[in-house]
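Anyone have tokens for Knr4/Smi1-like domain-containing protein? Sequence:
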Amino acid sequence: MNLDNFKQLHPYLFRKESTKLVDYDYYHFFSKDYISLIQSYQGMIAFENGAVFRTNSKIPIITKGYITVDYLYGDCKDENGLKYNIVDAFDIMPDDNFLSFGECPGGNKVCIHKNTGNVYFFWHEAPHDDECYYYLTSSIDMFIENLETDPDDEDIQDLSNVNVSHSLLELIKNSKNK
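Reply: yep, here.
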């Protein structure tokens, strides 16, 4: 697995405490390279520079051609762990052939299909069960290799120097005087 793009996202260990443990081994559904990657962080993996995955799939709630990935579950036995979140997702995912391995905004997830290894976006508020899984790529390794820095994250990093038009300043000034 090529990790060049992944490293540019500046992944870091993110920890929260929990007492719930999960013991079933789901790891055999994931590639050895992916398991090595999450074991190297020993917990939930978040992204300092944000992370997106570009997709050609037509996903109703995606308008910019990519999904945003908030974090990947780690190799730990608490609420940040892969095993815990796979079991937790069984309550919301209508098909148990999919195993979640990461979170997207709004409670959506990225998941792997147990039989094919394909990676899917799970839209948890889809109107019907047959409209909630959207194909992203053929493997978890391809998914990791193709993560990119979030372009929206770059756009808002520095708001200290903002240019405002004269007409907008006048409008603001006039609204204060009312």
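Residues 152 and 158 are 12 Å apart (CA to CA).
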